[in-house]
Specification:
The chain is α/β, with parallel strands linked by helices. The protein has 2 domains: about 100 residues, Enolase-like, N-terminal domain (Enolase-like, domain 1, 2-Layer Sandwich), CATH 3.30.390; about 260 residues, TIM Barrel (Alpha-Beta Barrel), CATH 3.20.20. Helices cover about 35% and strands about 15% of the residues. It is built from 13 helices and 16 strands. Strand 7, helix 7 and strand 8 form a beta-alpha-beta unit.
Length: about 400
């Protein structure tokens, strides 16, 4: 099965997505997600100008060889742009191979390890009372695992919390908007938030929280310890992960489970954290970590150390990535949890898909391939719109901070 054509489709049905479509001499097509939030056109150019010319005439079945060709064959390795481009090719080739076999993708990975995939949702509120209401609303929708984020008194904008009446989308402006931050106010607020949520909904639902890289290691340790009475499923991105030893300090002070990795793009980012058992969940995802081929390697390494997967699944990933991730989740033995932020109606119309949600769980479906397609005519009605992620500044003095 030879690759005869490949092209990149950029569209913005509510937010920007980059999709790779590969065509073959057997009339089959495969799709891969190449979206890199806020840097979409960099990946589109990397694919169009540097990768796609090398694909024409290659055997689409040789997935591993193509992955090695694009990774080891290039002098400049790793990085989010390169690995997102490789992921798009890899995902499209897995889609093609499964379609050629007439099987859903998870069957080619080794078959299902479970009947369905537990997912978690986002309950975001402007204050504690509103957040409790949002947790209850998501419970009514069937979710058994809920990420809890709340506005912080004294801060104008807080990560994870949408403006009134709007769907949360962090890439919110044609130039970066600015948010303010106070670690002191945040650390005072979060334990009170979870105390109120647990008092309202009891011990049954799994609760999660995303720190979003905002704390120093000792501050994160303090937060993790203060949240122990509320037995979180995980505390995510507690501190920037460039220095793996930072997580050692957190580990020494708290038993709150730790999750990290949505910004990782290779097994080398994950290796020290996994091997030293400094995290409990690795959150690398299909599109940013080199595709299914490379994510399997990360998961296999993690399984040796009882670290489980927790793939990122926010709306900065297209339905193509979500479909591929759900096939991976259904197969991977050391699965932990899958993030689920429902896409907009416009996005779902552009990307018709076989995956479904019911009662806190998802299933990728039984369609051949990963089960996600693209309506190119409809996609063309949503042209690219430049959108940046915000930046963060300390409230007390205006210094730049981690976003």
């Amino acid at each position: 099965m030879k690759i005869t054509a490949a092209r990149v489709i950029v569209c913005s049905p509510g937010r920007n997505f980059v999709t790779l479509k590969i065509e073959t001499d057997q009339g089959l097509t495969g799709l891969g997600d190449a979206t890199l939030n806020g840097r979409e056109l960099a990946v589109a150019s990397y694919l169009t100008d540097h990768v796609l010319p090398c694909l024409i005439g290659r055997d689409a079945h040789r997935i591993e060889d193509t992955w090695q060709y694009l990774y080891r064959g290039a002098y400049w390795r790793r990085g989010p742009v390169t690995m997102s481009a490789i992921a798009a090719v890899d995902t499209a080739l897995w889609d093609l191979k499964a379609k050629a076999a007439g099987l859903p993708l998870y069957q080619l990975l080794g078959g299902a390890s479970r009947d369905r995939v537990m997912v978690y949702c986002h309950a975001n509120g402007r204050d504690i009372e509103h957040t409790v209401d949002e947790v209850r609303r998501h419970q009514a929708l069937g979710y058994q695992a809920i990420r809890v984020q709340s506005g912080v008194p004294g801060l104008d904008k807080v990560y994870g919390v949408a403006q009134p009446g709007a769907r949360y989308e962090p890439a919110d402006a044609a130039l970066p908007s600015e948010h303010d931050w106070s670690t002191e106010k945040y650390l005072r607020h979060v334990p009170a938030l979870f105390d109120a949520v647990r008092s309202a909904v009891g011990d049954e639902p799994h609760l999660l929280h995303d720190v979003h890289h905002r704390l120093s290691p000792i501050e994160a340790a303090r937060l993790g310890k203060s949240l122990e009475p509320y037995h979180l499923f995980w505390m995510e991105d507690a501190t920037p992960a460039e220095n793996p030893d930072a997580f050692r300090l957190i580990r020494q002070h708290t038993t709150t489970p730790l999750a990290v990795g949505e910004v990782f793009n290779s097994i080398w980012d994950c290796k020290p954290l996994i091997e030293q058992q400094l995290v409990d969940y690795i959150r690398a995802t299909v599109v940013h970590a080199g595709g299914i081929t490379h994510l399997r390697r990360i998961a296999d390494l993690a399984s040796l150390y009882q670290v489980r997967t927790g793939c990122h699944g926010a709306t900065d990933l297209s339905p193509v990535c979500m479909g591929a991730a759900l096939h991976f989740d259904l197969w991977v033995p050391n699965f932990g949890l899958q993030e689920h932020m429902p896409h907009s109606e416009e996005t779902d119309a552009v990307f018709p898909h076989a995956y479904t949600y019911a009662d806190g769980f998802m299933h990728p479906g039984e369609a051949p391939g990963h089960g996600v397609d693209i309506d190119e005519a409809l996609a063309a009605r949503y042209p690219y719109q430049r959108a940046y992620l915000p930046v963060n500044r300390l409230q007390r003095d205006g210094a730049m901070w981690d976003w």
